[in-house]
Amino acid sequence: MVSDTMPLRALRSQSSPLYRLPGSALVLIACTAAVLLTIGLSAVFAWRDRNEAVQQATGVAGNIGLLAAEHAARLIESGDLLLTQTATLAGQAGTPLPDDAATRDRMALLAASAPHVVGLEIRDAAGALRLSSLPDAAPGAGMPALKPNGMTIGSGRMGRRAVVLLAQPLPGGTAASGSGAAPRGWAVAGLDARAFRDVYRSLDVGYGHSISIMLSDGTPLLREPEGGGTTGGNPGDETVSHADDITVTRPIGDTGLSAAVTITTESVLRRWSERLWIYAAFAAAACATVAVIGALAIQRARKEREAEDALQHAYDTLEENVHQRTAQLERANAQLEAAVTDKEVLLKEVQHRVKNNLQVICSLLRLQAARIDERARRGFDESLRRIQTMSLLHELLHRSAEPAHINFADALRQMCDGLVRSDNPTAARLELEAQDWIVDADRATPLAIATSELVSNALLHAFPHGHPGTVRVLLEREENGMRLIVRDNGVGLPAGMPSQHKRPTRGGASSGLGLNLVQALSHQAGATLKIERDGGTIFTLTIPNLPVRQHAKSAA
């Protein structure tokens, strides 16, 4: 297989005869193949359309047969109901068959209740007419061979009209030798053959067809059209049935009859042949299109050699430019990766050095605190604690996989552990529940110092005189951000606290610097501070999910 990126010069040098043929010869071969393929596909599609036309006609025959069978079943069912009522009028077994006018009138009323029933009759055991709902009934009208058991269905005439005869035996006759009791007579109903034919004529089948009602032995009981031909398709057409016609048979209930619909193959193929011009037109248009395209391609093939040289030159130039550009991009990418790596290393190194410098400052403050009095030393201790909090954050940033983000829950755990060891003169218990929260360094620093101020103040002042107690720190998520709660069950705030911007200490001295610092740090982090009295003191920091810079702009 020839590669897609093979130069044109290499293609012309291939050993295959195909590449050495003139362009016009290749176009001619391709056009000839396209024409043959178009003709072949058109023939295949036309043959498939023929098969689909036959299948469609078979489906139509099946639907028409089902409709004819259902219609015949309903007519025979209503005739059977009238036979049952006529048998009731014939009286009980052992009584003579009626021949009075009153019974005739009642039979006439029954026949008139069903428009498709021509007449009702009562015949004796020999089949002779005894009583009829028609005044001009012929006594010797043709009757089918009557069966002593079950309903007999056949064709005949009643009142000069062609009918489908239904005969039901009247039980209660005398016993014949070698057989059961012979019927004492027959109840006969004549169903108008036009009730069947009119429905069959009204069906728009669309093909030459015939519809028949067949007896169980295959003998036609009724056929539309009469005779041996078929009707339908084009108006006025009448064709002759053949052995290869489409025939579908449907049973008519449990009567033993069946409805047979025959569609002539000739009418199906006639409709199919009317659509052949579509495939012929498609094939002609496709061949003409191929011829036009082939002529244009041959004309263009004459100039192909000249264009190939120019294209080959452009290909060589482009390939060289692509190689050079690729090498430049690879070098630039390597430089960018090295710069990013150097930046991350430098940032971690800066964080590590800042942490070390803060630890040095803490050591210097401890040395200086040893030389001053107890009251001033408290201020040094508070400053030392704040610097240690910042040192802890830089240490976590140094260890973090993302140099600019830390898990604030880890910072709270280490900070609270250090505070309970250093700022817990009453041995109060410190409880921490913190959900993981990844936060950037700009927001973590003020939040950590503010939390350190609140926890340290609670440990130092909430439980005077050594009273036991508990300080709880809770970091949890809420709908629009995080919530940080510092709660104690100590002595609580004095009742006369003027505002939340200045919190007196538990012993009465002012410590407004710590609370003012917490307020300023909360604002810097984009959080709001809330102070409550509920069995102690509750400080709640509500931290929205807004970047620090964005929050600062909105606050301004």
Note down, in words, how this protein is organized:
This protein is an alpha+beta fold and 556 residues long. The chain has 13 helices and 18 strands. Strands 6, 7, 8, 9, 10 and 11 form a 6-stranded antiparallel sheet that branches. The protein has a 5-stranded antiparallel sheet with strand order 2-1-5-4-3.
The gross shape turns out to be elongated
Instruction: Kindly report the average pLDDT value.
Output: 78
As a percent range, the share of strand residues is 15-25%
Structural class from helices and strands? alpha+beta
Oligomerization category of the chains in this entry: single chain
Count, helices: 13
Helix content: 40-55%
Q: Tell me the number of strands.
A: 18
Distance between the termini: 69 Å
Q: Rounded to an integer, what's the Rg over CA atoms?
A: 54 Å
Strand count, sense and closure of the main sheet? 6 strands, antiparallel
Low-confidence stretches: 1-5, 498-511, 548-556
Properties at a glance:
single chain, 556 residues, alpha+beta, six-stranded antiparallel sheet, five-stranded antiparallel sheet, 13 helices, 18 strands, elongated, disordered N terminus, disordered C terminus, transmembrane, kinase, HATPase_dom
Give the SSE map.
Layout: H1 8-12, H2 17-20, H3 23-89, H4 101-112, E1 117-124, E2 129-132, E3 152-158, E4 161-170, E5 185-192, H5 193-202, E6 208-214, E7 220-224, E8 229-232, E9 238-240, E10 246-252, E11 257-263, H6 265-274, H7 276-301, H8 304-369, H9 374-399, E12 405-407, H10 408-422, E13 429-434, E14 438-440, H11 441-461, E15 470-478, E16 481-488, H12 512-524, E17 528-533, E18 537-544, H13 548-555
